[in-house]
Design a protein that fits this description.
six-stranded antiparallel beta barrel; Elongation Factor Tu (Ef-tu), domain 3; flat; single chain; 16 strands; alpha+beta
Length: 378
């Protein structure tokens, strides 16, 4: 949900957690807190307010040869927080909370008010306890929040590297890459062609991700480097197309190659799609010679290829493992279903499958409770 990424993935993630909690036996004793670790660089016209220092400040250079105490006596820019619970009425709470309010609330649950703390900051932080203001839980909370589904604008990225590792690591020209657990389709990679196909990914950096087999979760295995080696140019013919001779093996037909430093036939310089014409020669598709080759030049092959998310609903993507584990933990104790009282061993390949099973267990439990009440009355 961080700018400038697509926030809808984060909102779908929050919906997954809410749906799991809402349809569990623990809902009536749940406080679900959604907040952020920082403001994402968004401008805020409100100056950061003062706060009780935690008592563990640090000295830092001030640029003039001396040091000053940074005592953390200010809060940062404002961040949003959402408190979700059947024990909270709808509305806006204007209390100036802080991140350590979460600690204060938990500490007060396990010990008498303000008797335990980590430091002065969380000791003096306001607790969320005052927001829990009902005598009985609400019954009007939505039972299910739908995700965005296939209404996403599905991005496309270009591959600039595909390592010969296990798992293969893809480097993209875009930082707007899918989240871990999503499926992507990679095509057109030259050299390390084993990168092509449909994969579940694990994000490893701002614009890098690893590839895993969607059927069994096993890591991918590269077969050769996704970036071609550099070669020294020894000839660039004055023809159409120009034919390059190097001291290195020619990349495969369809590869992209960057040629630079050629003198004489300078039209050879640039980025080209090539056709292999020999073990150490290749032609530059669409090129026209501008003169006789005299000297110099290098050729550097680049990894080409694209990745895209399959145009599937997000409900067809695999659920994250911890969401499956949490749903199983909650569903195992729900009565009224043929699986009740048994470990849940079935697999859930998609979010839709997990959601359907969770709803099935939820409605079975409701029917069980209704039958139990009816028997008690009779």
């Amino acid at each position: 949900m961080h700018p400038a990424a697509d926030v809808r993935w984060g909102e779908n993630f929050v919906a997954d957690i809410y749906n799991c909690l809402r349809n569990s036996q623990y809902w009536d004793s749940t406080l679900f807190i959604v907040t952020f670790d920082e403001n994402g660089g968004i401008y805020d016209h409100v100056l950061p307010p003062s706060a009780v220092p935690p008592g563990d400040g640090v000295y830092q250079p001030n640029g003039s040869g001396s040091q000053v105490l940074f005592d953390f006596s200010l809060l940062g820019p404002r961040i949003p927080a959402i408190l979700i619970s059947p024990w909270i009425d709808p509305g806006i709470d204007s209390t100036q909370y802080q991140n350590t309010s979460i600690l204060r609330f938990v500490q007060d649950l396990v010990s008498p008010t303000q008797t335990i703390s980590l430091n002065q900051r969380d000791l003096n932080a306001p607790s969320f306890a005052s927001a829990i203001n009902r005598a009985s839980p609400r019954t009007d909370c939505p039972t299910w929040i739908e995700g965005y589904g296939s209404s996403f604008d599905w991005p496309l990225g270009h591959v600039s590297g595909a390592t010969k590792d296990s798992p293969i690591t893809i480097t993209s020209d875009s930082s707007n890459i899918p989240p871990s657990g999503a499926q992507v389709v990679i095509s057109g990679v030259q050299g390390n062609t084993s990168a092509n196909g449909q994969w579940i990914i694990k994000v490893t950096g701002l614009n890098t991700f690893e590839l895993y087999d969607p059927s069994d979760g096993e890591p991918s295995n590269g077969i050769s480097s996704g970036v071609f080696t550099q070669g020294q140019v020894s000839n660039a013919t004055n023809t159409s197309p120009i034919v390059i001779t190097t001291n290195a093996s020619s990349p495969a037909t369809g590869s992209q190659v960057f040629v630079s430093g050629v003198k004489g036939n300078t039209a050879a310089n640039g980025t080209w799609t090539i056709t292999q014409t020999g073990s150490d020669t290749f032609s530059l598709d669409g090129s026209n010679g501008s003169g006789s080759y005299t000297s110099g030049g290098t050729s550097q092959g680049t990894c080409q290829g694209t990745w895209t998310w399959p145009k599937l609903s997000t409900e067809d993507q695999p659920p994250m493992k911890f969401v499956v584990d949490l749903a199983k933990q909650y569903a195992e104790v729900l009565p009224g279903h043929p699986d009740s009282g048994k470990p849940i061993t079935r697999e859930f390949p998609t979010k839709a499958a997990l959601a359907a099973y969770t709803r099935e267990r939820y409605h079975a439990a409701l029917a069980h409770y209704a039958r139990t009440k009816q028997q008690q009355r009779s």
